[in-house]
Amino acid sequence: MNNWPAVDELERRPRAGDQQPRGPRAPWFTHDADEGAVAFDVDPNLIDAPVSSSSRALEEELAALRHDRDALQLGFFEAAHVQQRLGAPRHLRRGAFDIAGETFPVRHASGDFLTAFDAGFHTVLGIGDIAGKGLSAAMWFTHLVGLIRLFAGSLPDPAGVAAAINGHLASLDPEAPITTLFLTWADACTGDLVYSNAGHPAPFVLRRDGSVEWLSRGGPVLGAVTDATFVNGGAVLNPGDMLLGYTDGILECRNTRGEEFGVERLVDATRSAISPSASATLFSVLGSVQDFAAAEPRVDDLALMVVRRLGET
After folding, report:
1. Tens of pLDDT along 131-143?
2. What domains sit in the chain, N to C, each tagged with a CATH number?
3. Measured between alpha carbons, how far is residue 88 from residues 76, 101, 277, 305 in Å?
4. 185 Cβ partners below 8 Å, 6+ apart?
5. Are 234 and 194 in contact (CB under 8 A)?
6. What are residue 112's DSSP bridge partners?
7. Which of 67, 93, 209, 233 has its CA 20 to 30 A from that of 24?
8. pTM here?
9. Which phi and psi angles does 125 have, rounded to 5°?
């Protein structure tokens, strides 16, 4: 649901004959706690003036307000579309790796992000969460994804990339928002994963036998400590294994009783998603989250990435 004021509400404002106080001409503001104030140059005195003397001018002002509102909504839509194009594709196939990912903003654009691209002999996969929601977080998205691509092309491993991004963000003034990031180099020929986890909720590998391996090695969140140290971790996706990365928006989805979806339900939902397709698995897990939340509205962005290694089942 958008937060723009209904034009009908403006038309029902008290008239001058109702003895409402008049003020100087000033922009009319609507305020959103996260997005800040948005100004429209509408004269409140004109809106409150008698219809007999200003109805035509009032209609023109209201038409201009509708036009400004529609232009802003179109701008938000275009920004969200650009963000989707710059992030990871919804489906990707690299050798034996079947990869799927989706982001779902809670409003307009997302602070959660996915990235996937080839660098040398491996595929770079990443999932992250920029603190905040809406445009304030999404404005940092292109910067973060650009840094990942820049450093991944010149540094040998994910830990080095995480350290370089952390140093850059920590040096900015004004300061950048705190960001979590899971980054992995995936070898589609061998199934090897080299990763570094910068404060992100730990992704997990679900083995063919149902066992779970958590990928938590790395370092702190990005941008908090200038000289933070990051290390690499390693894992192998064997045929039939699956990697699942997610943001905290998945875990924090609540049902009508106030319970969070949580990690245990996420693992169970992944085990129940019996499908050879990464996309089908992804939407099965998302369906479980949606069924759990029922009519309870989401309060945070969410993102999900599934990587399956195809082969013998």
Report:
1. 876 667 777 888 8
2. 7-80 (no CATH), 87-309 (3.60.40.10)
3. 20, 7, 17, 10
4. 119, 122, 123, 124, 157, 158, 193, 194, 195
5. yes
6. 129
7. 67
8. 0.75
9. -125, 135
